[in-house]
Amino acid sequence: MLVFAAGGRAMNSEIAVVVSERLARYGFGDAHPFGPDRHAAFMREFQARGLDARTRAIEPREATYEELLAFHIPAYVDLVRERSATGQGFLDAGDTPAFRGVYEAAAVVVGATLNAADAIMTGQCRRAFVPIAGLHHAARDRAAGFCVFNDCGVAIECLRKRSGLTRIAYVDIDAHHGDGVFYGFEDDAGVIFADIHEDGRYLYPGTGAVEEAGRGPAAGAKLNIPLPPGSDDAAFARVWPQVIAHLEKFKPEFIMLQCGADSLEGDPITHLRYTAASHGRAARELCQLADRLGHGRVLGLGGGGYNRANLAHAWTAVVEGFFLE
Ligand SMILES: [Zn+2]
């Protein structure tokens, strides 16, 4: 559906979602918290709510080697490729096992995020969502916490290169701190970072203290808000306005939301207690902000979430939030 904004410029109001079994291949086996059934859990709820009929489907693709190098160092990308061929060993100190085809599966997640970002930038849609993405722990030179390639980091670098954007916001409401994105851009003033997470004294990866606000030219461009274990929707609501105020100050040209569902009550590996309402609110208010800024660009990335019902509810709440209803 095309609508006309003030001034007569046509703006596409559609919402796009990457739907593909290819995304489900990114998983570490049925017994692992990051199992391949996460995709199916989301799709069942997405269809049950009729969202498949209201959104445009985008296909993923495998990101190229050169695209991966926009964020990662060559030695690390080569290591993933080698271990992917044998399926042996780990890609970090012991959280993230290699499996046969892990390179291709991880590159498809990155390609899905890049296709979604491109769809927004070319006006095919106004917002987009990618369920099995937002792999925020991967560093430029290594895997971490179930994350092989950091699709958020690659997308930020590619958006700058291809579209000339200079201010990109990254908002993260996953229970875990988005350390791969934070340290990947810690001294980069062009990445406006805001992250609400469980206090690192109680949860992996242990980072994201209030004092970590960016370095050098980026001092003040990063906002870390740790919450104590047990924090609920009311606690989220108390701090969320700080995220909106932080973004309003920097006026980003594109907003990325890593909406990990492991911050909901009942997740098996974290201790926060939100409901999906917090995720819906975050999505809605970021869209309102993006609209106020005149571009409307919001890209949602699923992130963590190891209770299947929780991720289905949180992620569909985000897609519904994109409609601003
Ligand atoms: Zn997480």
Description:
The protein has helices at residues 21-24, 37-48, 51-54, 65-68, 74-86, 102-121, 151-163, 179-184, 233-250, 276-292, 308-322; strands at residues 2-4, 10-12, 15-18, 56-58, 127-130, 168-172, 191-198, 222-227, 254-258, 298-301. With 325 residues, the protein is of the alpha/beta class. β1 (2-4) and β2 (10-12) form a beta hairpin. α2 packs across α11 and α10 runs parallel beside α11 (308-322). The protein starts with a strand and ends with a helix.
Question: What's a concise summary of this model?
Answer:
The protein has helices spanning 21-24, 37-48, 51-54, 65-68, 74-86, 102-121, 151-163, 179-184, 233-250, 276-292, 308-322; strands spanning 2-4, 10-12, 15-18, 56-58, 127-130, 168-172, 191-198, 222-227, 254-258, 298-301. It is of the alpha/beta class and 325 residues long.
Question: Can you tag this structure with a few keywords?
Answer:
39% helix; 325 residues; alpha/beta; binds zinc ion; eight-stranded parallel beta sheet; two-stranded antiparallel ribbon
